[in-house]
Design brief:
single chain, mainly alpha
Length: 100
C-alpha cells in the first residue's frame, strides 16, 4: 500500500483522504453505542469484581468489548493513513512549487 500511496497524484490522495474521513465517521458512529453500553456495564462489574482492571478484562471478553477493540483499531488505522496522505499532498504541492 505504501508504494501505491507514493504514486498518487494530489487529487487522488485528496479523494482517498476524503473516503477515509467518511469511513472514520461511519466507524465512530458504530462505536458510540458500544461505549455507552460500556459506561453502563463497568460500574456493576467493578462492584462485582472489586478491581477496575478485572472489570475491564471482563468487558474485553464480551462481544461488545471485542467489537470496541476492532472499531478502535480501524479508526486509528484510518487516522494514520489520512495523516500519511496529508504528508503526500504537502510533498507534491512543494514539488510543484519547486521547493522540494
Amino acid at each position: 500500500m505504501r508504494q501505491t500511496l507514493r504514486k498518487m497524484t494530489p487529487g487522488e490522495a485528496s479523494n482517498k483522504r476524503y473516503e477515509l474521513s467518511v469511513e472514520y465517521a461511519r466507524l465512530s458512529e458504530l462505536l458510540e453505542p458500544i461505549l455507552i453500553r460500556k459506561a453502563l456495564y463497568l460500574p456493576a462489574a467493578k462492584e462485582e469484581m472489586k478491581s477496575d482492571a478485572a472489570a475491564l478484562r471482563k468487558w474485553a471478553a464480551t462481544e461488545d468489548g471485542i467489537n470496541e477493540l476492532k472499531l478502535t483499531m480501524a479508526t486509528k488505522r484510518n487516522e494514520k493513513l489520512s495523516q500519511g496522505l496529508s504528508a503526500i499532498i504537502r510533498l507534491k504541492e512543494n514539488e510543484a512549487k519547486g521547493i522540494w
